[in-house]
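In the lab's daily routine, each protein ends up as an entry in a very long ledger. A line of letters takes care of the sequence, but it says nothing directly about the fold. The fold becomes a row of whole numbers, each drawn from a learned catalogue of backbone shapes. The protein below has been through that process, and both of its lines are reproduced in full:
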Amino acid sequence: MAFLGHPRPLISLPSFHSPKATHAILISRFSTRSNSVEAVELKTSRKEYSPGVIDDVFLNVFRTKMAQEIGWDSEKPGYDGLIDVAHRIMVGRSNSEATDAAVRILRALFPSWLLELYKKLVSPIAGGKVASVMVARVTAISCQWLMGTCTVNSVEMPDGSSWPSGVFVEKCKYLEESKCVGVCINTCKLPTQTFFKDCMGVPLVMEPSFSDYSCQFKFGINPPPPEDDTALKEPCLQTCPKAIRRMELNSASASATVVSKCPKA
């Protein structure tokens, strides 16, 4: 067995006392740990909200109030039926009429005395901060069945301070399923802003993104005037069935017209 007398090792290992080797090991450990953390964060951020029994109750109550307001309900079950009813709110009504109807639906979800008490007793506390923070937390907890995964975040106030009165919706299910800018604006954004301000004394601006379907709620901040609100000037979504039909008709017409914004927004 001649190899027993071989003066050199078969495998050459670097000395762990070498600065280069130590540096390489530290980089390797840091890189591995960093990649693991990034993978966990990415996986967590993509986790979708799974509705439970209580969420089903919320959906049924909300849909019932919607159907009572317009005198019509869809034959489709569950969330699909709710989206049908939301589209029906826009039928035969102007944008402002649809918004007013949606405000009445939201008001019907709460006892009138509760809204009045909140507006008179809670909203004035600490310049509105307490009320804004409270409704942000309740919204994030109770509305995920409607919008999807929500998290409370901090928003910058007009005076430069920061309040934990924001709610970030990662990907709004209501917008994604309705496929309509007009439904988002007139049955969600505008009526929700009006409801919290007029009925609960809490200013709110909602900033939907029609590119990735996210939405930022900012409680405690007044919305901009309509002429300055960019959300009201958005074009139709590419997934909107009516927009697709319109494009098909325009492409077949010699006098095609370009629609710069959603006609129902």
Remarks:
- The first strand starts at residue 150 and ends at 156.
